[in-house]
Amino acid sequence: MSKSQRIAKQIADGCIAQRAGQLDRTIARIYDGHLRPLGLRRPQLTTLVALTLHEGVRAGQLASALRIEKSTLSRNVARLADQGLVAIRETDDGGRALFLTKSGRAKLVEAHPAWKAAQREARAFVDEAALARLAKALP
Predict the structure, then answer these.
(1) Cβ count within 10 A of residue 77
(2) Helix intervals (H) in the chain
(3) How far apart are CA 65 and CA 47, in angstroms?
(4) Quick count: other Cβ atoms within 10 Å of Cβ 79?
């Protein structure tokens, strides 16, 4: 085995970034599979949850809180607004604030059983100790 092959094998076998990416894609498929019948995907559920906890927030503030690009949040908000789940309102200072609609709150409640089922399925990949370390490292 050549030096470059040994290095490639070491990286392929032990790269945290690669494994985390694989885990992310696997878990995303689980959640999206459970949420799809409700017309939602994981990022839209995350947005519904965040707006429930931070109603009236500006998009930039919410994107920062979720650690995502503002353009990514904008796409998710647009999809949710098209479904009547999120409203965008002008603020007194000319800004725009995000709010859940009554339908948005109902959709979050409707999605809860699907989320719980996805949680149970995803636990096969992430145990309680790993979840605790993630929660501590990524507040």
Answers:
(1) 23
(2) 3-14, 16-35, 42-53, 59-66, 70-82, 102-122, 128-137
(3) 11
(4) 17
Query: Mean pLDDT in runs of 10 for the chain (139 residues)?
Result: 94 89 94 97 96 93 92 94 95 89 98 97 88 82
96-100: strand order across its sheet = 57-58, 96-100, 86-90
Q: Which residues of 14-47 are buried (b: 16+ CB within 10 A; e: fewer)?
A: eeeeeeeeeeeeebeebbbebbeeeebbbbbbbb
- Give me 31's structure tokens: 């959640």
In this prediction the pTM is: 0.85
Nearest to 65 by CA among 55, 75, 39, 115: 55
